[in-house]
Amino acid sequence: MKFEGIYTPAITPLRDDGSIDKAAFAEVLEYLIEAKVHGIIIGGSTGEYYAHTAQERFELAAHAKDVINGRLPLIVGTGAVRTEDSVEYAKAAKEIQADALLVGSPPYALPTERENAAHALAVDRAANLPIMLYNYPARMGVSMGDEFFAAIAGSKNFVAIKESSGDMGRVHKLARHYPHIALSCGWDDQALEFFAWGARSWVCAGSNFIPHEHVALYEACVVEKNFDKGRRIMSEMMPLMDFLEGGKFVQSIKHGCALSGLRPGGVRAPLQGLDEAEKNELQQIVATLKRNVAHIAKGV
Fold first, then answer.
1. Which of 28, 29, 194, 228 is the one with CA 20 to 30 A from 42?
2. Contact 76/61 with Cβ under 8 angstroms?
3. Domains of the chain
4. pTM for this model (two decimals)
């Protein structure tokens, strides 16, 4: 499998009582398919996987498979503290015939690079599916380095990496030293730089509610190779990225979905929703972004 394009880590809509709203979830997936994103990720941090029970995760992935029905690639996240749990999520993904897995480092445990590689290889053996690695040291506490890559080199399933360190030096190194592992942007305000260094995909939470604008940046940089146009689009997206990185990330993504007419519901504890001032600020940012990117896309 080749990871190319915009991959949306889908939100998980909730009802007022905090239970998962599968009908609203299906609406999110249909919205993304209609918007022509290139793939959908279930069980990512934007989807609040850490606040779900194992059974909820199994059922949500299976429901996504049924709704998507082959129209887009489905990637299933296997994030968990225990390797045994990640293995079970991988097995379930294989059972529903998911297209690929998202495999990160176990959070909190602080494994060594060799231990982290053993974790990834165990998940790989459980499903034998294409894998996008997920390097997010700020969230997981450890980074995937040379020793990690040496230990997993025997498997051909590790085909891509979502790089979320925020360190452009790592992007340079991955592009130069590991060209067989496709780069995927995992740090939104560096998307332009990732594309300049050969990345052909972007895992972006904001595409839950402004997918067309994210696709426009991808097409400008990767398809058209027009980085002047790409810079203009990126510049218009920066206020949103600054807002999202200011805190309340998932809450902001969900409210953005509400602005787009979807039914995201709230967030699970310990998170709490946006206040009215934050909602108004986000609404203004999104309105300006959409208007200006539309002009750029039309050549204005």
1. 194
2. yes
3. 5-225 (3.20.20.70)
4. 0.96
